[in-house]
């Protein structure tokens, strides 16, 4: 093969820059400002939930009617002691927003963990074993999915009553069919792969094959689904709280705060605006961070950009 030498400047001009592979790697690892925004929103929410007792300037349950409906500190009549104002019985809005992050994150994380564990178990069993096991699991999944999601969540919350554990259980049961159907499809596509057939020929048991061959190949897809569902659960929990079907009304949660502030939207807009803004930021942070996690964990997504 003939070797043609060119000046370094001309070679770099044709290929772009000499460190182009390094820049491509950086772009793959850090997909831009979206991950920064996502991590900032999610880190702020997690930090507020973990260190709420130290970050909150006041007790979220402390009432004082003499300071009721104080506006945010930048408005006329506001006070620096209450940066986001107070509610109709004098409780600090900022402190309640900080403590409310605990409920949203607990419901989102707990619900998605329960749904993903149940969905992965039943999806793996249905896809790998097939036969009557697949038929029974498929019918159960179809029955749950046949009920409208809103109707199922609201009715179950009304029956079980307002409780943090009940909300997590409801979301876990309502969402596990999505994971089960997704995992089942992935297992069926991997079941005929050569590495699975080779493992079966060597005498590997079903549990070993599921653990070492199927799980690593489906975890990226499950993580992607889990992040979207976690963000959705945060929104649904706020909706249930607005209806009075989430946690107890005395517990500071963003849904409860929006429900309490709906009668004051014209006069005291900050009661519902700030918890609603917190819900939107948390959902945005989870979605953006989840997209980066999918890009990092799923090997199939790294070679596409």
Protein model, in words:
With about 300 residues, the protein is mostly helical. The protein has a single domain, classed as MetI-like (MetI-like fold, Orthogonal Bundle), CATH 1.10.3720. About 70% of the residues lie in helices and about 0% in strands. The protein has 13 helices and no strands. The chain has helices spanning about 10-15, 20-30, 35-50, 50-55, 95-130, 130-145, 150-160, 165-190, 195-200, 205-245, 255-260, 270-295, 300. Helix 5 (about 95-130) runs parallel beside helix 8 (about 165-190), helix 7 packs antiparallel against helix 8 (about 165-190) and helix 11 packs antiparallel against helix 12 (about 270-295). The longest helix is centred in the last third of the chain and has 38 residues, at about 205-245. It is elongated, with a radius of gyration of 25 Å. It starts with 7 loop residues before the first helix and ends with a helix. Mean pLDDT is about 85; it is low at about 1-25.
Task: Write a concise keyword list for the protein shown above.
305 residues; mainly alpha; MetI-like fold; 13 helices; disordered N terminus
| CATH fold name | MetI-like fold
Helical content stands at over 70%
* Major sheet details: none
The count of strands amounts to 0
Q: How would you state the average pLDDT, rounded?
A: 83
Total domain count: 1
Oligomeric category:
single chain
Supply the number of helical segments.
13
Global structural class:
mainly alpha
CATH class: Mainly Alpha
Strand composition percent: under 5%
Computed Rg:
25 Å
The CATH superfamily appears as: MetI-like
Low-confidence stretches: 1-26
